[in-house]
Hints:
CATH superfamily of the largest domain: Medium-chain alcohol dehydrogenases, catalytic domain
Number of helices: 10
Distance between the termini: 13 Å
Radius of gyration: 20 Å
Mean pLDDT: 97
Shape: globular
Helix content: 25-40%
Amino acid sequence: MKAAVLTGIRKATIIDVPDPELERETDVLLKLIAVGVCGSDIHYYTTGRIGDQIVRYPFSLGHECTAIVERTGRGVTRVHPGDYVAIDPAVFCGHCDQCRTGRYHTCRNLLFLGSPGQLEGCLSEFIVMPQECCFPLKPGMTFEQGVLVEPLSIGIYAVKLMNNPNAESIAILGTGPIGLSVLLAARDSGIASIYVTDKIDFRLNAAKSAGANWVGNPDKSDIVKEIQTLQPPLLDAVFECCGKQEAINQAINLLKPGGTLLIVGIPETKQISFDIHSLRQKEICIINVRRQNNCIQPAIDLIHNRSGWVDFMVTHIFKFSEFKTAFDLVDGYKDNVIKAIIRFG
């Protein structure tokens, strides 16, 4: 079969690799239909690493995908050949201390699609995944919506982790697909006031159209001062979705005493810093959001129940042979890209 692989920094090609095989009774052979380009893919493409996860070439990326079930192991009951499915890219062991307490996303033996040292990605014609990672799409859902299930599940999980049913005001710093997913999840949860910032105006326009009450560009205005003027008590929670030190600083200034900072974005640097005195004086709670946990099905349900709600995020579709063009487009934030999707066949 064909697979798209990285061969160096900003270098990639399509090669022939062995077909995957069903090894366990609960394995599912999947034929890929569509794969989304994620910001983490771009980190690996441009730097060859995220933290201590370092690419060894050649290596295949991709973890947001829609597929059709080609064949199943004898023990599979969850899906059947011909089913269209969204994939949870995290394969958990089911027996470690984390799995036993329901924290499957922090499994001690977790294997994640397109993550160096764990699993090759889904930018290939076929992959094999356990049945637990395969979630049938609802009738009427598009393949592109299936790709958006995984990023939307992160937004749903982040809002769930806020754990404040009385929250009335939040900010989302960074409006890539993850920040926009947090916005949609926050809207669905009924939060009244949602402030959104980004340095890219077309993404701010998308956020405004998707329901943000206020948007601002930190390169063009003092967003902290403006939000403080509009929301004098300050905010119940801030979702940092861009992985930038300056956004962390802004978040702390925007939070009311007792507020919550949720770190969703992946910093490019190994370390970030905090104003510990402000954190202490305000008694700010910091929550690191590790992907998602048990939110794939809620994401499918939300997309299905609010037909077309997420479609605005898909701005570009490429052929499999054009995958490197898609990577370069997303890396450069070109042509008003929000989510680029690679289609097979």
